[in-house]
Amino acid sequence: MENVKDPRQHINEEPRDDLMDLVMGFGGMFGFMFVVFAIAVIVKFNIS
Description:
1 helix; rod-shaped; mainly alpha
């Protein structure tokens, strides 16, 4: 490999499905934020 900056010489070792990565990222973040929201609502109702 003479020119290490040439992207054509780098083999994609692990092909990725970018759309599925995006969907899983949004889904995971939405789920996490939903859990945080639900806990915040429960805490607020317990305080008041």
